[in-house]
Amino acid sequence: MKAQRAQNIKWGHLPISKEEPQIMHIDLNSAFAMTEQQARPLLRGRPVGMANRLSKNCCIIAASYEAKSKGVRVGMGLVEARKLAPDLVLLETDPPKYLYVHQKLAQIMKSYSPNVKMKSIDEGLIDFHGTRNVINPRSLSEIALEIKARLKAELGNWIKVNIGIAPNRFLAKTAAGLNKPDGLDTIRYSNLQQIYSELKLTDLSGIARNYEARLNSARIFTPLDFLNTSADVLRHQVFHSVAAEEWYQRLRGYEVDDEPTNLGQVGRQFALDKSTHEEQELLPRFHYLCETTGKKLRYNGMDARSIVVWMGFQSGGGWKIRRTWNTSFYTDKEIYYRALRLFRQRPSHMKLTIMAIT
Amino acid sequence: MDFVEINKRVEVITRFASRGDPAYLVMPAKMKYKGEEIIFTELGLRHPTTKGRRMIHVFDMSDGTNDYRLEFDAEMLTWTLITIMGSQQ
Q: Can you give the pTM of this predicted structure?
């Protein structure tokens, strides 16, 4: 089957997959902000922004739909966000609360199939292959509505999820993004081209501005153009790698994203409450960064051989240094002393607003 | 939106239901704070967390005017009012 598909890709004949949709992608809407709105009824209907730490230099890491409708975006600084939404309610994140919602979502999803993969704290997918005849004879749309109802019953009425159903993971994620919030959409053989005709290239998961520019340079301006471009053109003019064949199949509904991925790096960043270049003020925070990065590293069962220290300056711009060692390390002490040597090479007269370690 | 940290032990009357959704089996019904009785009308969310080795159940409650964050320490068996959010403290 795979050999036949490879042959079809080579000759540019791979048809759109006619497989029945069996992948369900579930995505909590603006998860952190929505969870806070569920927990605190007074926040419902108000623009809410979430930050890791409340300070005037903090950045918004999650925003409610009300805030997003006023132009507030994730990654935006507080000052800019307040200009767009003066009534923005800014809250500090409460990780145990989001973890609880994540666990509830995962628990519900696992009751439908053993093949459940949580992609992050607010999204996951259910692979229904092999379960339809025995456990889940109902239609997937019916199951999706039941999942929405169970989430509301167990967590509260404000909890909404987008659900996308499709033959592969990529299309299921695309379907989940079509009608936010609280959407439920299915992409199948019969409506695939219609849906592509309504989207922009950057609406496709995995295509951001850089890839869009590369696609544009090969005269691919819409998802439909992308679909109708041969694997040969994608390989030689756009991707220059095996990614071309993967995109060629992915766009047609064939599964190429079910391979396990390895975590390559861990990191943390810290927005300072006050810009400063004083080492005595920076070091305790830098130590905290190293400690939490070490904790994350060990939690994932990893060790490190490289450290990148990055910082942003008040005057704009940033500075980055990277070093790789021959031996690996994982303790907080080793991480801190190695990172500190890099940190001390920074332009010490510059006032920092943010620092990060990876 | 006012947001006030309280961090004070409070008296709470709790309702234990005999059946129904597990998320709502236990729910604070009333609280005494500053001599006033506050009657809760909505449970926003309940979630578990820990403080050291102690199990804490966090209840986000509302009386329709303000939102309250209450923590029940499952080891010490105490109720603590952590924050009040709203316009009438």
A: 0.82
